[in-house]
Amino acid sequence: MSKADQLLSKLPPPTLLPSFVTDALNEPRPAQSNPVLNATDVTSQNFHTPMFSPVITSKNEENVELPASPSNEAVADKAVKSEQSSSKADLFNWMKGSSSSIFSMVAEKAKNSVDAVLTTLDPQMKDTLNPNTFDNTDIVVASEKEIVVSAVREGFQKVFGKAVVRGLEAPDQPFAAQLVGFSAASKATRYCIDSVRLHVVKGPVVSFERFIVEPIESKWYEFGLMKLNDMQRNIDLEVYTQSVPVPAAIVGLISDDTPKDYEHISTGFSIPVAHFMASNLKVHPSEWQEVMTGVSQRSSLLAASVSLAMAYKIALE
Predict the structure, then answer these.
(1) Distance CA 126, CA 147 (A)
(2) Rounded to an integer, what distance in angstroms lies between the CA atom of residue 228 and that of residue 99?
(3) Could you give the CA distance from residue 175 to residue 235 in angstroms, rounded to a whole number?
(4) What is the bridge-based pairing of β-strands 165-167 and 178-180?
């Protein structure tokens, strides 16, 4: 027998294995620690009633105690309300200021529109709508011709913005019907101003006369002299209109038709140039200048009036 066989023969026989299944079946069940309660047991036990505090209280509740110090939500609500009130106030103030300015602009535009309509229908309304700017005095024109008075009025209103201009008829002057030369024109305008001064003591007086002159032999031109005199301020001003060429033949006819014993022959001729020019050109006597130069008599008068008003404004300063 080998040594291995001798060792194996000395081992004891195997023991039986335990049966866990049988032990589990035969083991007694422990008592339940948390048995299910019956309905009768539930009623017999004492339970604490839970306390419920609603967030929104009933309207009928009275004497609700408020906390001593305001919460963060209350402070935030007050800040929001104050900001909203300030923004509303700013908005209303802006609307109030803007509405007043808008209404004033609309009213001013409406007034200007009405004034424009009235002055277009009746140019004399400008003096009523626009107050005087010459210390409660007005400008008097020594003529009742509308073309002269309206031109002076428009010229002074362009320079001063507001001006009252009226025409006053001057008496018959001891001068020729057609003035010849600068000296004769200056004397005639001065005579008209002095005649108006008998009725108008204060304020500026404007006079206008047309005349012809021969600066070069056989070259005749017609000019207009506009003179202003302000006796209180010791202001004397003169301006001339645009020159208009006059044919030498027309001047020759006027000279031939003037009687040799004409009482005012020293200052000119007895027949105006406009009479012959209008007859030859087949136009109205006030339109022959426009036919010859392309500039109407009204335009030349207006330009001279603006120049005279500007010179007067500078003299006042």
Answers:
(1) 16
(2) 47
(3) 25
(4) unpaired
Question: Coil, helix or strand for 275?
Answer: helix
**Residue 65: count of CB within 10 angstroms of its CB:** 5
Q: Give strand pairing partners of 134.
A: 137
- Residue 48, classed as helix, strand or coil, is coil
> Worst-scoring range by mean pLDDT, 49-63, 132-146, 202-216?
49-63
The DSSP output letter for 137 is B
Number of helices (H), then strands (E), belonging to the chain: the values are 11, 8
Q: Do 301 and 295 contact (CB within 8 A), yes or no?
A: no
Using pLDDT thresholds of 50, 70 and 90, give the confidence band for residue 2. Answer: low
Spatial contact of 176 and 264, defined as CB atoms under 8 Å apart = yes
Give the pair of three-digit tokens for residue 259.
């009687």
pLDDT in tens, 133-182: 444 458 999 998 999 999 999 999 999 888 889 998 877 788 999 999 99
